[in-house]
Each structure stands twice: as structure tokens, then as C-alpha cells.
Amino acid sequence: MCVIDNINGRELKFVDTTLRDGEQTAGVVFANSEKIMIAEMLSDLGINQLEVGIPTMGGDEKDAIKQIVKKNLKSSIMAWNRAVVSDIEQSIDCGVDAVAISISVSDIHIQNKLKTSREWVIENMVKATEFAKKNGLYVSVNGEDASRADEDFLIEFIEAAKQAGADRFRFCDTVGVMDPFTIRNKIERIYNKTKFDIEMHTHNDFGMATANAIGGVLGGANYVGVTVNGLGERAGNAALEEVLMSLIHVLKCHSNIDTRRFKELSEYVSRASGRELPAWKAIVGSNMFRHESGIHADGALKDPKNYEAFDPSEVGLERQIVIGKHSGRAAVVNKFREYDIELDDEVASRVLDVVRSTSVKLKRSLFDKELVFIYKDVMRDMEKDSTEAI
């Protein structure tokens, strides 16, 4: 949970769909044991609700959902369904406490995918929602492709969902075509007309999933759908770690989610999904707190706040000063202090010259052992020069 101080003290809740939408990434398959581990890690983190799979798939998928339910996690456990009663019956059989009922709401989808009418969409959504509510389930009604839907129809759809007993509406930017400014205004209009809980579910096709999720929150949404590392179909979804840390540090939320577990969680999901965690990944990438550039490293050594938006320990990372082509003398002197070696100005300058030329030859920053060898070579050369001078 997060409470945003500067937006009427609203409570925001996170819905993680790594185990459903994340696993729908082309080529990604989680073993059942991995799904259970990820669910436990997310629950321990403090995520409100986990969307863990699609029961109507049967087989291993259904078995994994049942095993997750049996863990009695702190998080609410949600299953994804089409707006079909038989899908919801499969979810009930799994023992979940919540269901997502998904159906297309844009005319593009209604005409070209479903080949039906708006009336048919509302009728089937209402039927599925009423059935789920009669069976005591929490219901999120998902508007697939909501970002391209007619706004008046979207409001009609939400009002029908409310009347059927739904608990919230999931606004899906299914193909990631929104921008954060437009989506903020759209969500604000929808919320003001319906006064209904709205969840943001944003995709990253244009690299704006996190920004769009935040934009929706600013517009009035109080649920945010995310995945670990932004895993998801095509270019992925809004990343849990990016959205949450943005809410905390940019929008000044208070949170009881244990962000210190992010590194461990992100690395585990990366390995389980077979998708590399890039060094430059926002929030949890290994380069987040690695400084090489002379000006940046010197600034970070004087006060980390000069070049770090938050302390690395908040997400389970550590600060690193990297020595390479772009390093300055202050970074080199500081690095050798780690070895209990104090460099004077002349030695530091010579070492730095060799460091830079070696880094260019190797096309990378240098390892600690290489730095020690460089230091020994420099000292040997200086001693030789001194002897020859005599």
C-alpha cells in the first residue's frame, strides 16, 4: 500500500501480474515451483494482490494456482478470466478470492476480433460479473484496449459493471499507445463521471508504461497493475520497481512495501524467465549506482546525493566507484585507499594515465587486480627512473 500525501491522502494498491501477463511474454515459461516462489516473494514484499494465472488453461497452470492458494499468502490471489461463466467456474475450483473478468471494449476489437456488438460485450460482462459476485468473489472488470475505446461507451460499460456488483475497473492500455498527459486527463474524466475504483494496466510499446501508470494515478486511479522488471507481452508492462520508487521519490508517497527486497526479486524473476536484467535497467540495474566519469565519481564521493536520486540500500544495491577510461584522479586515489595505499599526486597521475590507456585497449573498466598490477608497474618504473637519474 502507498499513501500519497499530496493527492488527498488516497491509498494506492498494487496488483502484480508477473505470473499471468508477465509469463505471456513470448518464449517465457515459469516452472510451477518458480511461480510459487515468485508469489511468496511478492507477498512478503507487501504487494496487495497477485494475478497468478488463467485457470481455464487447466493442467500445470491450474495446479500452480491451487498450490499458491494453499500457501495462504498475505496477498489477495486473483485469477484471469474471459467474460465466460465456465472460466469463472474454473477459478472458483482453484480457491482464489478474486477474479479479473476481461473483455474488449474498443470498436477495433469488438468489430475485428470479437466480430460482435457493444451490446453483446456489456451483456456478457454483466452475466460473468453477476455469477462471480454470487459466488463471493472480488471482481475486477477489465476493459481490454480501453485506451482506444469510445469514452462514452467506456463510461456506459463501467456503469453496467457497477450495477452488476463489480469492485473495480481495469483500464488497459493494451497496445501501449497512450501518453501520460492524455491518460491523466482521460482517467480524470472517467473517474469524475463514474466515481468507481480504477486500476491502471499499461504496456510499454512506446516506452511509456511507467509514465502512463503514474499519469493514471494522477488522474484518479487508485490501483496500479505492474510486473517485476516490466516483464510482459511485446515490449512489456509497467515495472513494479519503477512505478513504486517513482511514487515514493517523485510523488512523495509513504509506502510499507519492502523495497529492500527488489534486487533479490528482480534477479530471481530474471533467471526464472530467462530474460536478462540489463545493467542499465532503471532502479535495479547494476549500473544504477556505479560511477566512472571523473566528475560524477568525485561528486558521489563528496556526497552521494550529488548524483543519486535515492540510497542504493533502498533497493538492495550497493554504490560502486568504477575505474576506467573516464575516471578522474580523485576516484583513483579513493580506490587505492581501499587497499591501504595512499597515492601522492605524481603517482596518482601516472597510474591514471596507464588506467585510461589500458581501459581503451581492453574496451572496458578495470578489475581491482589489474589496478594493483598497474600500480606495481608504475612504482617499478618510477624507481627505475630515480636510479637512472642518480
TrEMBL record:
Family annotation (CDD domains): DRE_TIM_NifV
Highest rank taxon of the organism: Bacteria
One biological process term in Gene Ontology: carboxylic acid metabolic process
Residue ranges of domain Pyruvate carboxyltransferase in the record: 12-263
Keyword Acyltransferase assigned: yes
Pfam family, one: HCS_D2
Alphabetical keyword list: Acyltransferase, Transferase
Its EC number(s): 2.3.3.14
Family of the protein in this entry: Belongs to the alpha-IPM synthase/homocitrate synthase family.
Name this polypeptide is given: Homocitrate synthase
